[in-house]
């Protein structure tokens, strides 16, 4: 296997994953573009880790097809070494030193960089002679990051690897990721609850909700669709009528409503003429509104009814 300079793409076609009576993924179809940093977002239980496990060939889907770099990754001798999946839970040799763990991983990852691994060990103040079983939760998370970034795999999936890190360490991780990604492009998939922190890293966004794809698009496009409308209640209500309203807050006679949709120049002028203030919506807030249980439960029921 030779690592590419642009990373590997991922395709899921009608993928369903069941665990007994529980449906973790429900007819998921999506594409992860090669050579991008993609955010895999969703509330707890949305199916993020299950999706990542299927892509990394940890298991096979109940139904549908998973393709990595155009091939089924399951027991694929070419593809498997090029997919690095790092989970917050670890997946390391607890009773061996960090140095031994790095040697083991480097033997399975053709693009592994010992130089980068050394730099990251220094960055996170990790002693190579220590054993993972003797590390704090934060240091274990940091070592997972070392393994993930130093692998330089064409497809690297980092699933909540920041958990346990303090804020300075998290931002050091983000900076290290961006710096190495710029020099060694590949496909990076980040799963995180700290959307406000990783937002600046993301080129594409996939949002899962109740095992289904809620959003799959470029991050800039999604940001452009989020809009806050603030002003007198009656004027706001007239302006947002018929639009996709995500949330609304009222304070006395003033209302701030979050809507999803891109306005035309004429609509912007009309809003300003009505004395309304228009503003952007952070990706974190969009995510919260889009995955609100009351909102998505109704949409999911309607979708399943239409499928029957």
- What is the level-2 CATH architecture name of the largest domain? 3-Layer(aba) Sandwich
Average predicted confidence as pLDDT: 92
CATH homologous superfamily title of the largest domain: P-loop containing nucleotide triphosphate hydrolases
Reported for the largest beta sheet, the result is: 6 strands, mixed
Distance between the termini: 44 Å
Strand order, main sheet: write it out: 5-6-7-3-8-9
Structural class: alpha/beta
Order of helices and strands: EEEHEEHHHEHEHEEHEHEEHEHH
Helix content: 25-40%
What is the molecular shape? globular
From the alpha-carbon coordinates, what is the Rg to the nearest angstrom? Answer: 22 Å
CATH class of the largest domain: Alpha Beta
User: Which percent band covers the strand fraction?
Assistant: 25-35%
Instruction: Report the CATH topology name of the largest domain.
Output: Rossmann fold
Please tally the β strands and state the result. 13
What are the segments in which pLDDT stays under 50 over at least 5 consecutive residues?
none
Q: What is the total number of structural domains?
A: 2
Domain ABC transporter: 10-235
InterPro entries: AAA+_ATPase, ABC_transporter-like_ATP-bd, P-loop_NTPase
Keywords: ATP-binding, Nucleotide-binding
Organism: Cellulomonas phragmiteti
